[in-house]
Every structure is written in structure tokens, then in C-alpha cells.
Design brief:
Elements lengths: L1 H16 L6 H10 L4 H25 L5 H21 L5 H21 L14 H18 L4 H10 L4 H25 L5 H25 L2 H23 L1
Helix pairs in contact: 1-2, 1-9, 2-3, 3-8, 3-9, 4-6, 4-8, 5-7, 5-10, 6-7, 6-8, 7-8
């Protein structure tokens, strides 16, 4: 089982780091499918995001791709609201959380798949402080409740603001560890952490995210990244939907 989880974690981290999104968005439902209790899977997913996206961000900083000013408003609001979400999760039925997760995956996947750049319109280089703060608050709340880190909603919402997709990916990778950390610490305080599982997924997460980030910037264009993510998100939503009907 450890080898299987490591392999899945490695592949998920590689694929989702292509868009700057923590692989927890797909790892958490897979762990649940494998029989891991949902309250154990969620903090594992958050920790997986912390180490994986931190590794990706270190790479982005070394290569001078990161604009810190775009990430700070999201970090502040997502970190605060992730605590609220994580604490609120214990009052929500597990099946309700899974249904929320399905909706989350479908919306995120659809945004990536159908949003297209208008002809003659250039991508923005920056987004307003207010828009970034609101994006972070919404993503943080969901990340705390679902244990996903928020990257899957931050990236498509930033895309809808008109920000360049690769800048969006870099900023999202920078933000995800912070919102994931506050949510993870809340779960840890509630005594819901399996450290063996964390070691397995986080080791794979570091390797996968480092490779995925390098591959994205050297080999892929923005449209290819969006299509890959859209397909993965929508397929996972379909699988989870079949498991609850």
C-alpha cells in the first residue's frame, strides 16, 4: 500500500504542479477510495501540498519567475479562512464534504477547459489587491473544509481575471503552502494526523513537484497546461460522483 500511495502521490504532484496546483486536489479523493479515513486523508493532503509546492516555489525563486506582491494578499486571506474551514469541517457530514468536493472539481475543471483568451486582448501582468484578497478568502475556506490547499480554485479564478496563465501558476504555487499550513496545523491540533502516511506522500510530493515545475516552463505552453488540468479534475469528479450515488 505504501508503494502504491507513493507512486500515486508522485504522479499527482508532477501533473498538478504543471499549473502550480498542489496535488492534494486529486490525492485526497484517491486516498479515500483506497480506504483511508477522510479525516486522515485531508491533513495528509494539506501537508503534501506544503512540501510539494514549497519545492516548486524554491525553483521559481531561483529562476526569478515569482512576483511576491501578487501572492501576499492571497496568503493573508487564505491562511485566515483556512483555519475557519478546517474547524468547521468537523460539524459537516462526510458525505456532504465529498459532494462539495465533486462540485469543486467540476467547477475548477470547467473553468480551465472553457476559459479562452479573447483575440486581441493581452494577458495582465498584475491583479488588484481586492480581487486577490477575495480569491484567497474563498479558496482558504474551501481548502480548510476539503483539505485541498485551495490551489485548484485560486488558479482558475486568477485566470478569469486575465492574468497570464504561467504567472498564475507561479503565484498559486507560492500561495498554496501557506493556506495548507494553517489548515494542517488545525487538523494536527485536533489529533487527526498519520505521520507515516505524511512521510510517504510528502517525499513523493517534493520529487514530483520539482520535476513538474521544470517541465512546465521548459516544455509546455499555457493552453496545454490548462487542458491537462481540466481533464484530470473532471475525471476525478466523475469517479467520486459514481462512488456516492
Amino acid at each position: 500500500m505504501d508503494i502504491l500511495i507513493f507512486t500515486i502521490s508522485l504522479v499527482a504532484s508532477f501533473v498538478f504542479s504543471l499549473g502550480g496546483i498542489g496535488g492534494a486536489i486529486i490525492l485526497v479523493p484517491i486516498l479515500i477510495t483506497l480506504g483511508i479515513p477522510i479525516n486522515t486523508a485531508r491533513p495528509a493532503g494539506l501537508f503534501y501540498n506544503i512540501v510539494g509546492m514549497t519545492s516548486a516555489t524554491v525553483s521559481n525563486i531561483k529562476n526569478k519567475r515569482l512576483d511576491f506582491r501578487q501572492g501576499i494578499p492571497i496568503i493573508i486571506s487564505s491562511s485566515l479562512f483556512a483555519i475557519v474551514g478546517a474547524y468547521s469541517s468537523k460539524f459537516i457530514n462526510d458525505k456532504v464534504i465529498i459532494i462539495l468536493f465533486i462540485l469543486f472539481l467540476m467547477i475548477s475543471g470547467s473553468l480551465f477547459l472553457f476559459h479562452k483568451k479573447k483575440e486581441g486582448v493581452e494577458y495582465k501582468e498584475k491583479v488588484s489587491f481586492t480581487a486577490l484578497f477575495l480569491i484567497g478568502a474563498f479558496a482558504g475556506l474551501l481548502s480548510g473544509i476539503l483539505g485541498i490547499g485551495g490551489g485548484g480554485i485560486i488558479a482558475p479564478l486568477m485566470l478569469l481575471t486575465g492574468l497570464d496563465p504561467k504567472k498564475s501558476a507561479v503565484t498559486t504555487a507560492f500561495v498554496v503552502p501557506f493556506s495548507s499550513l494553517s489548515g494542517f496545523l488545525t487538523y494536527w491540533a485536533m489529533g487527526q494526523v498519520d505521520w507515516r502516511l505524511l512521510l510517504t506522500v510528502s517525499t513523493a510530493g517534493i520529487i514530483g513537484a520539482t520535476l513538474g515545475t521544470a517541465f512546465m516552463h521548459r516544455r509546455l505552453n499555457s493552453e496545454a497546461v490548462k487542458r491537462i488540468l481540466a481533464v484530470m479534475l473532471l475525471l476525478m469528479a466523475g469517479k467520486l460522483f459514481l462512488s456516492v450515488i
